[in-house]
Design goal:
two-stranded parallel ribbon; globular; binds 2-hydroxyethylsulfonic acid; binds NADPH dihydro-nicotinamide-adenine-dinucleotide phosphate; 8 helices
């Protein structure tokens, strides 16, 4: 039987690349996100290109009832999922703290922190029961250092970093690995979402340098989940070569 991985936010970007890469490496995958039409396309693609099995679950991770009813559909062999990639997340807006939007703040806190917690609370007891499992939390360089106008997004990713450390301590007795992967700038739908569809602003983020691609992060996740049982990757910070820290990117003129 293939190992099983649950990947949140698999309808785009890092989550999609991770689902596809894990499937190519003989994982069966549970893929989640709100956009059911994307899930259908990705499920079809994985089924046609690999031997791996796929379960698609469409739900809004901010809604604990929706998360629970999706979780209740993870039955049969899928109950043995041994990897959870807590990836669903976003930045909404980029503004000074005194000008920020409450709606944006709530969306980021509810998705990046509370959504991660809802999934973990449901999936981790099964891992405890099995005496093994691996939780991968997708943090960010934004969770290692603050940057101008990043404020609440930074705070949510600092929370992911803190939660990862706490989860590792709480779950170590049960043989469960906990890893945080913190990417720098990755060209995905991230900036399109942050700037609410303004592609001029979104494209500017990646102008003049080669950012990371979703596949680069997926490879780091694959590396972490394929270490032998005695090895855990605690924390990985991955940056584009041209990005030295959150605010310093070398761009060609
Ligand atoms: P994308 O926008 O490409 O993908 C985000 C994914 O999260 C989508 O699948 C989206 O699915 C899902 N998602 C967002 N909100 C919800 C929700 N309410 N309920 C369910 N799913 C949701 O961005 P990335 O791939 O770049 O982002 C993935 C993770 O990586 C995020 O946690 C992000 O913070 C982090 N990250 C990104 C970096 C970057 O530069 N791109 C750098 C560092 C970290 P759908 O819209 O279908 O619901
Ligand atoms: C996304 C990376 O630096 O744009 O987490 O916030 S950054």
């Amino acid at each position: 039987m293939n190992p099983i991985a649950i990947i949140t936010g698999a309808t785009a970007g890092i989550g999609r690349a991770t689902a596809e890469l894990l499937a190519r490496n003989d994982f069966d995958v549970v893929i989640t996100g709100r956009r059911s039409e994307n899930l259908e396309i990705i499920e079809e693609e994985i089924r046609s290109k690999t031997q791996s099995d796929v379960l698609s679950l469409s739900f809004d991770i901010r809604d604990p009832k929706a998360v629970k009813s999706a979780f209740d559909r993870i039955t049969g062999k899928w109950e043995k999922a041994e990897v959870l990639v807590n990836n669903a997340g976003l930045a909404a807006g980029l503004s000074r703290i005194h000008e920020g939007s409450l709606e944006d703040w709530e969306q980021m806190i509810d998705t990046n922190i509370k959504g991660l917690l809802y999934m973990t609370r449901l999936v981790s007891p099964r891992m405890v029961e099995m005496g093994r499992g691996h939780i991968i939390n997708i943090g960010s360089i934004a969770g290692k250092e603050a940057y101008e106008n990043g404020n609440v997004y930074n705070a949510t990713k600092f929370a992911v970093d803190g939660l990862t450390r706490g989860m590792r301590i709480d779950l170590v007795d049960f043989g469960i690995k906990v890893t945080a992967i913190h990417p720098g700038a990755v060209e995905t739908e991230f900036s399109k979402v942050r700037f609410k569809g303004d592609m001029k602003k979104a494209n500017k983020v990646y102008e003049g340098f080669t950012p990371l691609y979703a596949e680069d992060v997926a490879e780091a996740i694959l590396f972490a989940v394929t270490r032998p049982p005695h090895v855990n990757v605690d924390d990985m910070l991955i940056m584009a070569t041209s990005q030295a820290c959150a605010y310093k990117v070398v761009r060609k003129k």
